[in-house]
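Issue: ligand-bound run for copper (II) ion - logging full I/O for the record.

Environment: standard queue, default settings, no custom constraints.

Inputs:
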Amino acid sequence: MKKITLNLTLTLLFSLFATQINATTHNHGEQQNMEAVGIQNPWVRSAPPNAPALGAFMEIYNNSDKGVKLLSASASGYKRLELHRSGRKNGMMTMVRQDFVLIPAHEKLVFKPGSWHIMMIKPEKVPKEGSSVAITLVFDNGLSKTVNAMVRKAGMMKDYGVKH
Ligand SMILES: [Cu+2]
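Outputs:
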C-alpha cells in the first residue's frame, strides 16, 4: 500500500516538473520567464563617434502582482545614465527626465525611440555597431538586473511600436 502511494506521488511530481519544463521551453523569446521582472530585446541605437549621448531601449515585463518601479540604470564608461521619456509638445519633440519608471502589475513597458528610453550620457568612447553594452537596472523591489544591449541601427518598424 505504501509503495503504491509513493509511486503515485512520484508520478504527480514528475508531471508537475514536466509541465514546468514545457512552459519554459515553449515561451522563449516571449515574456513568460517567471521571474518578477523580465527584460527582453535590449539594444542601443548606434551613433556617430562624437555623439554626446546614446539611447538604450528594451521591453520590461512585470510578472508580479504589484507595480514595480525602475529606479536607475548604470553602465561603465558613461558619465551617467538617466531615465527619459520623449513626447510631443506643441509640435516639438521634447525629452523629460523621469525619477522612476513604473511598470504596472502584469504589464510590459516598451522603451523605444520617441517614447521611454534610457539616456546614456557622455560615453568615454561611443560603442561600435555590433558590439554590446552591459546595462544594470535597479528596481524598487530590491532587484537589480544586468542586460547586454546590442548596438545597432534603429529603423526597424517594431522599434517604433508601429502596428498595422
Ligand atoms: Cu533622452
